[in-house]
Amino acid sequence: MSPYSSTHIVSVLCLLFVLGFEDSVVAQTRKAQLVDINSYVAEVDRFTKRNTKARRIFADVATADDNNPRWREFKTKREFDKFEGNPDESAFVWTRAEKIIAAAFTFTSQSGDWAHLVTYYFREDGTLAKIEAQLNTFYGDVSVVRNQYFNNAGVRISSSERILDLKTQKPVKKPADYFDQPVTVFKKASELPFYKLL
């Protein structure tokens, strides 16, 4: 005779059903959030492409001997291109209704061994929606493409990573001599290093 009563078995089955239902609801909610974020990002991309002259340009102009960042705004792309300091960090920023909606950073090494292109998409309330990043590096001759999605509370809800050959852009395994450059996460637009200059 089984030590478990039929009532106990039914209770366990009900609990498993509820847990499975909750997992399904969570998965559906996450999927809906990703769809909404991708839709918003596509709309922001259209805006930034149509408004290239509206972007603002910032760069950290601190010298190699200076341990403290010193961000500066450049009035035009020409002024930025003529700057002789060769900044390691720069960003193009787009605003709409005086709110930051996108910040496209370029992080580089002085040696030119790697370049990290990272675009941050912010909602109108200033919260981070998505990060799209591509690290191009000669350490292993690869491009590492990453996407990260965040909910309004700043919690990462999804992420992906692909490693591609630097020249062919075809998928490859992570090489032994690969050296990563982690993605900096700014969960709010107000955390951007040049925010006070806006």
DSSP strand tally: 8
Q: Tell me the distance between the termini.
A: 75 Å
Strand fraction: 25-35%
Count every helix, treating DSSP H or I runs of 4 or more residues as helices. 2
In round numbers, the mean pLDDT is: 90
What is the radius of gyration?
Answer: 22 Å
Name the strands of the widest sheet in spatial order: 2-1-3-4-5-6-7-8
Class inferred from helices and paired strands:
alpha+beta
Largest sheet: 8 strands, antiparallel
Q: Brief description of this entry?
A:
This protein is of the alpha+beta class and 198 residues long.
Give a description of the structure.
With about 200 residues, the chain is α+β, with helices and mostly antiparallel strands. It has one domain (about 35-195). The protein has two helices and eight strands; from the N terminus they run H-E-E-H-E-E-E-E-E-E. An eight-stranded antiparallel beta sheet has the order 2-1-3-4-5-6-7-8. A hairpin with a 2-residue loop joins strand 3 (about 90-95) and strand 4. The radius of gyration is 22 Å and the shape is globular. The mean pLDDT is about 90.
Keywords:
about 25% helix; eight-stranded antiparallel sheet; globular; 2 helices; about 200 residues; single chain; alpha+beta
Task: Give a topology summary.
Blueprint: H1 6-50, E1 56-60, E2 71-74, H2 77-82, E3 89-96, E4 99-108, E5 114-122, E6 128-137, E7 142-150, E8 156-165
Antiparallel strand pairs: 1-2, 1-3, 3-4, 4-5, 5-6, 6-7, 7-8
